[in-house]
Amino acid sequence: WRGKPVFVKHRTQEEIDDAAGVNLKSLPDPQDDASRARMPEWLVVVGICTHLGCVPTTDAGDYGGWYCPCHGSHYDVSGRIRKGPAPLNMEIPDYEIEGEKLTIG
After folding, report:
1. pLDDT tens column, 16-25
2. Cβ of 58: how many Cβ atoms within 10 Å?
3. Which helix (H) or strand (E) holds 58?
4. What is the pLDDT of residue 26?
5. How far apart are CA 34 and CA 37, in angstroms?
6. Are 7 and 44 in contact (CB under 8 A)?
7. Is 10 among the residues known to form the active site?
8. How would you list the strands of the sheet with 64-68, edge to edge?
9. Is 90 strand, coil or helix?
10. Which of 15, 62, 77, 100 is least enclosed, having the fewest CB within 10 Å?
11. Is the dihedral of CA 50, 32, 36, 42 positive or negative?
């Protein structure tokens, strides 16, 4: 999408509950999970680390979301920065989900 990778994650109920239960005051870039995932079981994020633009690995890191091995940023299953040098959460692109169809942009 616009020359950038996009990650689409199908989340389990446990992952949804964990993401919803995070204390927002503990986050460097506070955003609640509900504002990041239009359908709780599906998360769509631009797959770029907000530190220096590397591509993080999926299902990795201390919070089970993404890990950027370049400089050690850890994102949770909501794409929120939890640890490391990245200043912001992973970007959420404009998207729509209709039935089994995902449209980005």
Report:
1. 999 999 999 9
2. 13
3. strand 57-58
4. 96
5. 5
6. yes
7. no
8. 57-58, 64-68, 73-76, 81-83
9. coil
10. 100
11. positive
